[in-house]
Every structure is written in structure tokens, then in C-alpha cells.
Amino acid sequence: MFDLTKWQRIVLKVGSTLIAPDGKGCSSRYLLAIAHFVVRCRAMGIQVVLVSSGSVAAGKHLFSDNVTNNRDVSITLKKAMAAAGQSEMMAAWDRLFDFPTAQLLLTQDVLQDHASYTSVRKTVFELLDHDILPVINENDAVSTDNLKVGDNDNLSAMAAAAVDADCLIICSDVDGLYDKNPSQHSDAKLIHQVDNIDSNILSMAGDSVSGLGTGGMFTKLEAAQKATAHGILTFILNGLKESSFNQLLQGQNPGTCFMPAETPMQEKVHWLTHTSQARGEVIVNNNIQAKLQDADLKLDYSDIVDVNGDFAAGDTVLVRDEAGKKIAKATSRSSSCLLYFLTSDDVDDSIVESAQISGPVIVKNELAVLETK
Ligand code: GLU
């Protein structure tokens, strides 16, 4: 049991199967129960943010069958389907509510840049303050491999962290996480509660992928990992069943519940660990490992032995030790160009010393230590 009257804000992720169950445009078959849940939550004073997939599935029927039925649908065609389906999907949600909805289309680079990330966060809060329902999806039409979040499960966890949600609800087409794939094993058991998403739990996801969307159970577990690390209670439940939502409203767990971390990560550390992608690498000398937990840790030019990649000051980098072990993700206050110069063999020590005056390259509150098992 949990007390949903204490929730201030939730993120609800709805997958393509629920939006376009027949792959022929949007249907209200499953959305009605979800919309009813949203309305009930709002009536209880809980702010709701929707992360809705379904643009590709909703747009498919607008293109001729002989191209969409081809197994090798091109990426460009999928993007076109997403662009056309996005407005159908928004219209489907709009029809179900008598309050306004707002569309937010995000890409990895928006979430990547901490200033844009903060701007999205502020926009969502502003919408919520005006009782408008934010509906987030990936901007598939413009995303390239570099710009792609890739799946809406992870996107929903990033959104939940960005808006300080109390709970993330991932609506799936299965009842939750099973100890083995339920479509292959009749004795598969539903796991009701997960306190810690370790490698054993991750291995239960197998390689399941849902038909119309991008994610499977693995991306849902990744999302649960991201959200719980931020202190967000997470559910994976069956969105095909109206009873799932009734159970939630009664404070009961309808699927698998993932318990939030007792000590949530700070916002910037969470963003570095779970949202931001490293643009390059900084190799530091081995003495740094022992100092990683020091509250006043600072990495100077003299601590850096090598650099990989091409990044600007302010970008996220992966910090490795000299043996190549990943030890942290951090914001680099120097560009790779300057670091290449200062770490080169022929640079004079006096130049490195004078560069030091401008301050450290990495500081503790812009560094997230990576867990190594
Ligand atoms: N953004 C995709 C869509 O709207 C869905 C991605 C996913 O299913 O995870 O169709």
C-alpha cells in the first residue's frame, strides 16, 4: 500500500500499443481508462505529466500500405509517419479531456544541455501552474542517431526527474516484470516489488520488445533505475486493464513497484549520471580514485594525463583512470582543444601553471561517481 494523497506530481508513460492498438490510427479503447485516471488524479490535486508514444503507430495508416507493410520501412519514412501521426495522437488526447493539453517534443540535445533542460523543466511547471496537461514525446522527425533518446521509457524517467515527480507510472501491455518471459514460460511469476534494480533483476528483462513501440522490458527497467535513483517511486503496470488504474487510486500496487532510493541523487548529479551523454573522455592519474569522495575535490590540468574526443567547455565528459576504468561523468570547464594542448608532451610546465590560474577543469559538485561492481 502507498499513500497517493501525498503525491504532488506524477509522470504517466503511455506506450504505442495503448494508443494505436490496431496499428491503424489512434483508438480510445485503452485511452479512456487512462484519461479517467488522469482526471481523477488532477481532481485530487495531483499534477500529471503525460509521456505519450504512438506518433509512428498513429501515422502509419496515412501512408500507402505497400510502403508501410514493407518489413524494411526506412528511417525517413518512420520520421514522416511520426510527424504526421503526432498531430493525430495529440488530437486523440485532446478529445478525451475538457482541459487544454500542450505538446512538448524533445530530443537528446535538449536534455543534454543543462540550460535547455532547465528551460523545459520551467515550461512544464508553468503549464502545470495553469492546469494545462503537458504531453511529451520525442521529436522523432528531427532526431538523428546523436540526438536520439531512442525510447520513451527512458525519456519518461528523464522527464520524471526533470519535473521532480513523486511517482512514475509506465503503462505497458504486460502486468509488470516477470522472473522470466511470460510469453515463453507458463510458470513465469510476476515480481510485485523490487527494492534494488541489480544485475539479477536486469537479467529478467530478456530481450522482449513491444510490437509497435521501441522499448521492451529492458528499457522499462532502465527507466525505473533512473527514476528510483532520483527518489521516484516507479510502477510498471498493465495499461490494457482498467483495473490497474482503479487499484492505483485505491493505493494498491497493480503491477511491479520499484522502491525509490533512500538517498536520492542531487539534481545535477542525477542529470550527469542518467541524462547527459559524454562527448569525450578525460584520463586522470590514478591518485584521483582515492580522492573521489572528497567534498572539495578539484581536478586541475596537472591531474589530467590524456584526452579523447572533441568537446567544448561545459560539455559532459567521461572520466577514466589510466587503466581505462570508467570512474565518473563530469562537466569539463575546459574544451578538449585546450586540454590536448596542455597535456601534450612538449608543453612547458610554466604554461600549464599559468593555465591553472583560470581554475580547475572539474569540480566535485559537477561530477557523478559511477558505480563499479
Ligand atoms: N517516439 C515514438 C513514437 O511516438 C515512440 C518511441 C517508443 O515507443 O519508445 O512513436
Describe what is shown at a glance:
The protein has helices spanning 16-19, 31-43, 55-59, 65-68, 75-96, 108-112, 114-129, 152-162, 199-203, 217-229, 242-249, 267-275, 288-291, 336-343, 349-356; strands at residues 9-14, 47-52, 101-106, 133-138, 167-172, 193-194, 233-238, 256-258, 280-284, 298-299, 304-309, 316-320, 326-331, 362-363, 367-369.
Secondary-structure topology with pairs:
Blueprint: E1 9-14, H1 16-19, H2 31-43, E2 47-52, H3 55-59, H4 65-68, H5 75-96, E3 101-106, H6 108-112, H7 114-129, E4 133-138, H8 152-162, E5 167-172, E6 193-194, H9 199-203, H10 217-229, E7 233-238, H11 242-249, E8 256-258, H12 267-275, E9 280-284, H13 288-291, E10 298-299, E11 304-309, E12 316-320, E13 326-331, H14 336-343, H15 349-356, E14 362-363, E15 367-369
Parallel strand pairs: 1-2, 1-5, 2-4, 3-4, 5-7, 6-8, 9-12
Antiparallel strand pairs: 7-8, 9-11, 10-14, 12-13, 13-15
Helix pairs in contact: 2-11, 8-10
Bound molecules: glutamic acid (GLU).
CATH homologous superfamily grouping of the largest domain: Acetylglutamate kinase-like
Shape: globular
Distance between the termini: 32 Å
**SS-based class:** alpha/beta
CATH topology of the largest domain: Carbamate kinase
What can be said about the biggest beta sheet? Answer: 8 strands, mixed
Q: What is the count of distinct domains?
A: 2
Low-confidence stretches: none
Give the SSE string: EHHEHHHEHHEHEEHHEHEHEHEEEEHHEE
Give the second-level CATH assignment, the architecture of the largest domain. 3-Layer(aba) Sandwich
Rg from Cα: 22 Å
